[in-house]
Amino acid sequence: MSELNTFYFGKVIADSDMLDVADKAPLNRVKVYILGLSTADEESFSQPRGSNNENTISQTNLDIIGDEMYAYVMQPVMGTGAIGRYNAKKDLFSVADAGPIENLDATPPAEGYMDNVYDGFVGGQGSSTAGVNVNSAGFAPDNRSNSYKGSMAMPGVGSTVVITFMNGKRGMPIIVGMVPGQADVDSIHGLGLPDEVYPNYPTFYSNTSTEEE
Amino acid sequence: MANKRKAESGTENVTERNQFVLNNAGGAIVMDGNTAEERLQISHPSGANINLNNKTFSMFAPNNAQELTLGDKFSTTAGNSHIQTRGGSETRAYGDITLVAGAEAFFNEPVADEWIDLNQDIAAAKAGPELAYGGVGNNTDVEFQVDGTPSSDGTVEGGTYNTNAAQDNVQQLMEEKAGEIAEVESKMGEGGSIKMMSVKHLHLQAGAKPVSFDSGLIVKDGRSVTRKTVIEDGALTEIKTGTTLFESKDTSSAVPFGDIHLAAGTKIRGTAGSGGIGLKTSGQMDLNTTGRMTIGGAEVAIGGSTSNSAGTIKLIGDVDVFISSSDLVTVDSANVNINATDQVTVAAPLTVYTGDLHVYGDLIVEGEIVAMKDITAGGRGGVST
């Protein structure tokens, strides 16, 4: 078994795959420093980038990783995960989400509200309150019908990720998830106190059956 | 590692771009992290969406929108609030509906009292006479100073009076108070009025049904009054008759519905077009003022009538009841009584009595007596000349 057929911790050092003029189209990929694998030199940093950080990744390793392949980002399954739908009885595939599947160009009602939807306080309505709402046209939906189904996101620079390699090949790294660290947990569950407390973090109720001695 | 792609615009180097999308055929949740354009939007294929961004929090429903709150509901708007309904609108409360307008200071500080106190002296100066001929304020009972002498008949009219200094200095007094008054008025804030406007009709109704309990007792012959006075055997004899006694009864003050209360701190002005104004009640109607009341019109009719023909009218004045017409005054009744404790004066070039004139006292004539027929002394059948 190749040593690449396992999981590694990694740190995202670039959150895009459009870094070079040769990168023509985005594929939702990032650059990752993989602990114990990316370079021979050991690194010790909390955040890999930023002149305001005391420890960052070295320029040498940064350049080495820059020449590595981009890592894909695995997304969770959230129902149908494709552009389009298929009906077996009619044996039809359509990217249109709205209407009968025979209507391959169907658009949802939301498309009708992308422009020219105003509330009653837009200017020029002839009432004494016309024009009082400067955001009177801000009602357009962000319609994603006929598009990819599921989640689409990329980890930011400094994210701690779990990464592995498709088929054990170094040229196909893929991030399978993120792992929050102590600072991440504190930022969500802590109150910022010197002697930190975590009011919403599970502790006693589901874990302690007796009083501490 | 270096970014070998050159940004087309310099702003791209200071504009962070990232977007998280959760998308399904049932709708999309989009979170933008783009610099200065941060956004959370939940959209449905129907077009319905909730949009939270740096400018506004907007909700759009292309179809119906509804909301159900089983507890209490609170809504606070720090700025102005605008609600527009393009169809009909109904606001129904099974409890009370309270509409309040006005700056917070009106409820937390005695700004109205402060304003009245500051304007009290100005109002008193305005109410006083231009010349110092005295008088009493109709609401405050303040007696104004007299500086002069009345006419020979003791009246102000025709008298000689000096200028009322207070009235003369109203402008100066207003200027002196203007600063303090402006300070109080600034605490009253902008607005504070309720304006209700309808392009068609405005209907105010209190109570689900009208209440027509008896509000008074009509006793047709309840009071004894003089019908007429006759002279019999050389003596005056009063002929009495009964007139209506109306006893007002309170039967409706405790009815738990149907009251409308209008209270104006200063004035109520009502105008209506050619449709007119009608006020009708099955209870008592009071129109009172401590000031002057004017009732006028092309024709003014005052009537007292009941279903059993027992209506009465009373005109009462503390000092003076004056009836005037440029051409004609008619008093029409089967019997007319004029009671004067001092004198009745008829000032007319000619006075005509169409029937007999019976004088109980002496008949003193300063001019001539012209008789078309005999003058008889000693009563009817006496000596005539």
Overall description:
The complex is a heterodimer of chains A (213) and B (385). With 213 residues, chain A is mainly beta. Helix content of chain A is 8%, strand content 17%. Chain A contains two helices and eight strands. In chain B, helix 2 (111-127) packs antiparallel against helix 4 (170-187). Chain B has helices at residues 104-108, 111-127, 165-168, 170-187, and strands at 19-24, 27-32, 39-43, 49-53, 57-60, 148-149, 160-161, 216-232, 235-248, 376-377, 383-384. Chain B is elongated, with a radius of gyration of 39 Å. Chain B has four helices and eleven strands. Among the domains of chain B are: 2-60; 104-187, no CATH class. Chain B is 11% helix and 17% strand. The longest helix of chain B is centred in the middle third of the chain and has 18 residues, at 170-187. The interface between A and B is large, with 52 and 34 residues. Strand 6 (150-152) of chain A pairs antiparallel with strand 1 (19-24) of chain B, so a sheet runs across the interface.
pLDDT average of chain A, as an integer? 89
Figure out the total of helices of chain A: 2
Compressed to H and E, one letter per element, the order of chain B equals EEEEEHHEEHHEEEE
Q: Uncertain regions of chain A: pLDDT < 50 for 5+ in a row?
A: none
Largest sheet of chain B: 5 strands, antiparallel
Instruction: Give the overall form of chain B.
Output: elongated
Helical stretch count of chain B? 4
How many strands, which pairing sense, and closed or not: the largest β-sheet of chain A?
A: 5 strands, mixed, barrel
List the helices and strands and how they pair.
The complex is a heterodimer of chains A (213) and B (385).
Chain A: E1 8-14, E2 29-34, H1 59-66, E3 71-73, E4 85-87, E5 92-94, E6 150-152, E7 160-165, E8 173-178, H2 182-189
Parallel strand pairs in A: 3-8
Antiparallel strand pairs in A: 1-2, 1-7, 2-3, 4-5, 7-8
Chain B: E1 19-24, E2 27-32, E3 39-43, E4 49-53, E5 57-60, H1 104-108, H2 111-127, E6 148-149, E7 160-161, H3 165-168, H4 170-187, E8 216-232, E9 235-248, E10 376-377, E11 383-384
Antiparallel strand pairs in B: 1-2, 2-3, 3-4, 4-5, 6-7, 8-9, 10-11
Helix pairs in contact in B: 2-4
